[in-house]
Description:
The chain has helices at 6-12, 23-32, 82-89, 98-105, 121-124, 128-131, 149-158, 182-198; strands spanning 20-21, 41-48, 60-64, 75-78, 94-96, 113-116, 160-164, 170-177, 209-216, 221-224. By secondary structure, it is of the alpha/beta class. The strands form three sheets. A five-stranded mixed β-sheet has the order 1-10-9-2-8, covered by helices on one side. It has a three-stranded parallel β-sheet with strand order 5-4-6, with helices on both faces. It has a two-stranded antiparallel sheet with strand order 3-7. The longest helix is centred in the C-terminal third of the chain and has 17 residues, at 182-198. The protein is globular and about 60 Å long. 33% of the residues are buried.
Amino acid sequence: MAKIGKRLKAAYEGVDPNAAVDLPEALKTIKERASAKFDETVEIAMNLGVDPRHADQMVRGMVELPHGTGKTVRVAVFAKGDKAAEATNAGADIVGADDLAEQIQAGQIDFDRCIATPDMMGVVGRLGKVLGPRGLMPNPKLGTVTPNVTEAIRAAKAGQVQFRVEKAGIVHAGIGKASFSLDQLVENARAFVDAIAKAKPTGAKGTYIEKIAVSSTMGPGLKVNTATVSGE
C-alpha cells in the first residue's frame, strides 16, 4: 500500500469523505488545503444519470466560465488567406492549412484548442482519428467550426471549457485555480453546473445530476450538497 505523505495527510485531516457540504464551504476547504508548491487547479466532477452509449443520452457542449480557468490556452486555427491573417491578429498561437495538417499527422500537437473555418473542413476531416480521441476535433455544434475566428479565439483564450460525458456517466472540468477568490470559484462552479443542466439530453430519465464533488490537483475531494448548486 502506498505511503501517504505528511502534506497529503494534513490536507485530509478533519475531512469526512462521506459528508456532502454546501458548495461555498466545500470550495473554501479546497482552497485552504491546496498546499502544493504550484497553483493547483480546482476541479469539479459530476455523476450524471445517463448512459452515453445511447445517442439520446450524450452530454456534450461548451461553457465560458465568468472568471476563466487560470490556464493559458494555446489555440491552433485552420484557415487561409484573409481568415488566416485574421486568426493571427486575433492571437492564435498556430495558424495553417495543409502544412498544419502535416504537422498534426506527424504527431506535433502543441495546442489545447483547434478551430477551423468551414472551407477547411475537407483538410481537417482527414485528421479525425488523431484529433478526435484528444477532444480537439473542430465541431460546428461547439462553435469551433466557424467563419468568425476572432470570436472563437477570444472565447477559447477567455476560459471557455469544453465538456463531454465519459462512459461511466461522469463529466469533469477545471474551474479555476486555488489562487482564485472563493467568490470566483463559486461563480465558475455554478456556471459549469448550469451548463450541464441545460445540456440535459432527451433520453435522460430519473435523476439527472446525481452527485457533485470538488477537489484540487493535490488535495482531498469533497462531496457537494447538490441543493446548494443551481442547475439541479
